[in-house]
């Protein structure tokens, strides 16, 4: 209860108390608490190259203008190359159907840029751009999608809602140095709303991203610097109230970034948002190889282990006994019987030439040993307990043991018994990297962005530059904490940049033979200086001469292609070696596959009339797990009655009257994950889905049967700021 609630409750007049309580309740609904920022105008997406049509939202863009998307109109009619346009009636929501009455304006059609308001219903398709196949035929494919990440997230929600194991993003840091855009205009340090715009942009995307994460066990990883770290922390707490959120400080530039009059910045911050049962794994300690293992003192330390103490955590009487150490050699020669608490240790008589050593703290407090008497006999005989030095204290000799962790490392082969000392105690050294818990302060050499980021990218793309790439090994380690035990994990990065996340996933798969899959999303934004130079030459976004210099086509895809093939864009073997957890020549490449798509938008009518199979075929392939060669229906090729490509794990029935043909094709076929049936008849679909499972369910456990195109349309017709309507997917209680 807040203070004002408490004060209202103390008002004796019941009528007044109830009225004030009601007014306060209404006030709370209007007032924002916690993180407060403006809900900015919806973002607009320019559709360069799209032909303006009646009803489209457009911006008037005179030739040569490439600035912000501000002058929004709606096309009322088009005649003889001239569009008659009206202003949207609701300036805050230009896609609203109500329009203000007023004088119309006319513009040449070729001066209009079609725009899409975020939040409008969209009907996405994926256009294949390129691919690299260097893995086995049945290996899953990594995916690169060239798109604005908001609409790409809407698409991914249709494909993978609740199925993503890890999202790793490195959003713009909002430094004020024109490092990101809002409505096609750079947000810089002079923009008084830059923090609010950044939060509004991030909130929209995080709400979509949250739908992707597996609620039972998944993680969101977000990197950021000091400019937005505090606001981001509050935003994450607001959007993920059920999650456990931790922040790590990571040194990425040990030299420090010099800033006059300020501290030199060496670090960035990483938020880990853990969903469900997700826990932090351990990190390999590569510097431990060849080192001798550490012994620990065998005397217990905690106060619950004081001799004779009872209660929770207390030791039994069998853990207080004398250990006999030879005075001349300093070696253990045996032990005596355990002493009950009422028996003084002074009654113990050691063998001739030996001294009785009890677990005694320097202040004289009697403790207990780590082991019972019988356990001591076992581990001492194996050489896992030793005396290690005399001292002038109540406990005359240090008694040490190899803890359970080290004994397990010996059993697992991480550590090896090299030899034995004269007292039979073992000498053990690490033959491989050990696993260690990691703190919230990272100072790990492999995370240096200069060597692990810029240096790696320079090897892959010698003649191309990208500002501030993440260290490949830093991303790899962050992912390893949560997907090392998930060889089939699905990882998403919707601020993909140069593609480091997918590169790191390939490294993880190379290390353990995993089949993890990464989905990357990035736009094809051209750097500010490059855009100015291209505009000066009379070029415009959307033209091939412009688009070839965008980040996705010039950096992201070429980087990943080089990593997979082991060759630079010039066809030369990549020079240099991968380091740290997995060292091998970069020229070896990876046994991996990558499909590159560009996001496109379909007319609703085409989907409703079942004329979009070719365009949504890549979506069906991705929804089924992107297994096997990507199937393709070439332009002009007629749609088949039944689409059942060899080597694929999905089948599509496009003519519901040919159900018998589908069932015949499913006879004895294994390895299927999805069957898509095109029909508008809901009751018929349920019957057909049941028939499919009776024929193919036994050979294909968990087979998902999906209704097209109803499932697709319902997913995208609703506004993404509202709860999504229930889809028509029959998957025995689980969404396909």
Automatic annotation (TrEMBL):
Q: Give the PROSITE patterns listed for this entry.
A: N6_MTASE
Tell me the superkingdom of the source: Bacteria
Q: Give the InterPro entries listed for this entry.
A: DNA_methylase_N4/N6 (IPR002941), DNA_methylase_N6_adenine_CS (IPR002052), N4/N6-MTase_EcoPI_Mod-like (IPR002295), SAM-dependent_MTases_sf (IPR029063)
Catalytic activities: a 2'-deoxyadenosine in DNA + S-adenosyl-L-methionine = an N(6)-methyl-2'-deoxyadenosine in DNA + S-adenosyl-L-homocysteine + H(+)
> Mind listing the GO biological process terms from this record?
methylation
Looking at the record, the residues that make up the DNA methylase N-4/N-6 domain are: 164-274, 429-510
Keywords of the record? Methyltransferase, S-adenosyl-L-methionine, Transferase
Q: Give the Gene Ontology MF terms in alphabetical order.
A: DNA binding; N-methyltransferase activity; site-specific DNA-methyltransferase (adenine-specific) activity
Keyword Transferase listed? The answer is yes
Reported EC number(s) for this entry are 2.1.1.72
Q: Where are the transmembrane segments?
A: none
Q: Which family does it belong to?
A: Belongs to the N(4)/N(6)-methyltransferase family.
For this entry, the protein name equals site-specific DNA-methyltransferase (adenine-specific)
Organism of origin? Tepidimonas aquatica
Recall the taxonomic lineage recorded for the source organism. Answer: Bacteria, Pseudomonadati, Pseudomonadota, Betaproteobacteria, Burkholderiales
């Amino acid at each position: 209860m807040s203070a004002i609630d408490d004060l209202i409750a103390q008002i004796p007049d019941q009528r007044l108390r109830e009225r004030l309580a009601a007014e306060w309740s209404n006030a709370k609904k209007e007032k924002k608490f916690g993180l407060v920022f403006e809900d900015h105008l919806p973002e607009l997406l320019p559709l360069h190259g799209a032909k303006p049509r009646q009803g489209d939202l457009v911006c008037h863009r005179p030739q040569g203008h490439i600035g912000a998307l501000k002058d929004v109109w709606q096309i009322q009619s088009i005649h003889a190359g001239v569009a008659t346009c009206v202003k949207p009636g609701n300036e805050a929501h230009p896609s609203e159907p109500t329009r203000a009455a007023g004088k119309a304006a006319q513009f040449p059609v070729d001066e209009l840029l079609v725009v899409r308001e975020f939040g409008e219903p969209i009907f996405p398709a994926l256009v294949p751009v390129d691919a690299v196949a260097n893995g086995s035929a049945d290996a899953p494919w990594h995916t690169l999608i060239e798109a604005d990440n908001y609409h790409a997230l809407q698409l991914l929600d249709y494909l993978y809602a609740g199925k993503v194991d890890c999202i790793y993003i490195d959003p713009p840091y909002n430094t004020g140095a024109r490092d990101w855009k809002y409505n096609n205009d750079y947000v810089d340090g002079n923009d008084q709303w830059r923090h609010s715009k950044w939060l509004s942009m991030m909130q929209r995307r995080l709400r979509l991203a949250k739908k992707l994460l597996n609620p039972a066990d998944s993680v969101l990883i977000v990197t950021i610097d000091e400019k937005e770290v505090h606001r981001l922390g509050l935003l994450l707490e607001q959007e993920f109230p059920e999650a456990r959120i931790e922040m790590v400080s990571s040194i990425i530039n040990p030299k420090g970034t010099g800033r006059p009059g300020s501290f030199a910045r060496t670090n960035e911050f990483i938020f880990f948002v853990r969903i469900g049962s997700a826990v932090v794994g351990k990190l390999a300690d590569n510097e431990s190889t060849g080192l001798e293992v550490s012994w620990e003192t065998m005397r217990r330390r905690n106060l619950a282990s004081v001799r004779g103490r009872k209660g929770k955590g207390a030791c039994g009487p069998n853990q207080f006994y004398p250990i006999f150490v030879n005075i001349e050699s300093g070696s253990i020669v045996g032990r005596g019987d355990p002493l009950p608490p009422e028996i003084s240790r002074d009654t113990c008589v050691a063998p001739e030439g030996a001294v009785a050593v009890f677990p005694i703290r320097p202040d004289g407090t009697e403790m207990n040993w780590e082991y019972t008497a019988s356990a001591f006999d076992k581990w001492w005989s194996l050489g896992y307990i030793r005396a290690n030095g005399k001292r002038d204290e109540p406990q005359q000799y240090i008694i040490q043991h190899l803890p359970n962790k080290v004994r397990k490392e010996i059993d697992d082969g991480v550590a090896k018994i090299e030899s034995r000392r004269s007292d039979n105690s073992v000498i053990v050294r690490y033959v491989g990297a050990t696993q260690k818990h990691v703190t919230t302060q990272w100072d790990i050499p492999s995370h240096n962005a200069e060597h692990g980021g810029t240096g790696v990218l320079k090897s892959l793309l010698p003649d191309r530059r990208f500002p501030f790439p993440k260290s490949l090994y830093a991303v790899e380690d962050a992912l390893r904490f949560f997907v090392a035990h998930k060889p089939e994990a699905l990882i998403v990065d919707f601020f993909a940049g140069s593609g480091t996340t997918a590169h790191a996933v390939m490294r993880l798969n190379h290390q353990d033979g995993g089949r993890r899959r990464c989905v990357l999303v990035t736009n094809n934004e051209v750097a500010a200086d490059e855009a100015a130079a291209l505009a000066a030459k009379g070029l415009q976004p959307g033209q091939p001469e412009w688009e070839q210099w965008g980040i996705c086509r010039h950096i992201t895809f070429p980087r990943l292609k080089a990593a997979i093939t082991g060759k630079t864009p010039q066809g030369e073997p990549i020079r240099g070696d991968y380091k740290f957890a997995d060292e091998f020549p970069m020229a070896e490449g990876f046994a991996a596959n990558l499909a590159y798509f560009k996001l496109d938008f379909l007319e609703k009518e085409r989907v409703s009339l079942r004329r979009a199979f070719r365009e949504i075929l890549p979506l069906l392939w991705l929804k089924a797990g992107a297994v096997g060669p990507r199937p393709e229906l070439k332009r002009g090729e007629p749609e088949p009655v039944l689409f059942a490509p060899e080597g694929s794990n999905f089948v599509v029935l496009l003519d519901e009257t040919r159900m018998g043909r589908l069932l015949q094709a499913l006879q004895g076929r294994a390895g299927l994950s999805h069957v898509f049936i095109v029909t508008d008849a809901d009751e018929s679909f349920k019957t057909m889905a049941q028939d499919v499972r009776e024929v193919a369910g036994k050979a294909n456990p968990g087979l998902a049967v999906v209704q097209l195109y109803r499932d697709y349309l319902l997913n995208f017709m609703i506004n993404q700021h509202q709860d999504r309507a229930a889809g028509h997917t029959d998957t025995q209680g689980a969404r396909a």
